[in-house]
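Before relying on records like the one below, remember that each one covers exactly one chain. Contacts with other chains, cofactors or solvent are not represented anywhere in the record.
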Amino acid sequence: MLDRFDREINYLRIAVTDRCNLRCVYCMPESGIILKKREDILSYEQIEIIGQAAVAMGITKIRLTGGEPLVRRAIENLVGRLSRIRGLNELGLTTNGTRLSEMALKLKVNGLNRVNISMDTMNPDRYRAITRGGDLPKVLAGIDAALDAGLTPIKVNMVILEDTTEVEVERVHEFCEQKGLQLQKIVRFSLGDRQNLKMRFHAERPPRCSACNKLRLTVDGFLKPCLFSENEIKVDLDDIQGSLRAAVALKPESGSSCRNRSMCQIGG
């Protein structure tokens, strides 16, 4: 699929839940959010048929996000459904890693290709502060389990906060080198004002708008053509391809702000 600016749209990010077992300072309020009702959340069957339609139109890569996707019951079943779609080249998942030690092998067996794991520091106390209660050893165990299961290459997503130091970045970089992981640095940003983005260190994310190849599917069934835009299309399950075409047509050349959803309601 090509948008109005001749960008090839071949990547679909799917939020499978708005629930999370952490409260990271850059993603979710400490008190949490008002969660969607179960009947308002896409079922695995609905996600599968949307995935099938998307791949038929040129999507080659799907990534499952949240919230925290591993808190949704039997997520490996959805992985299995999507991995069997003919024409899908890559199926990935982004996780905070806290449940990965128990899930990695199930995910791999069901067809997951690769995993991104969020880890912003190697300091357990700072990790607990950033995530408001998270346990770093659980993440480290999840990384080892993913390596053992063969979910490679593995990316470590490190959000660069206002007080992140060069020493902290170097420690995470050294850990990734020792383990054979890819470090992806992400500058903390506000959805409400892309222009206020402050680049610290060299960071891989967010990418340039001119290179954007994504659509996003929210947990309640809306297609978002741009992270920094309030434009969205409710998926018509009787005309999924029409919904996809409409979303691609709404994709702006460069987004500026999104205030109708928070990051944890979009999936990054």
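The first helix runs from residue 44 to 56.
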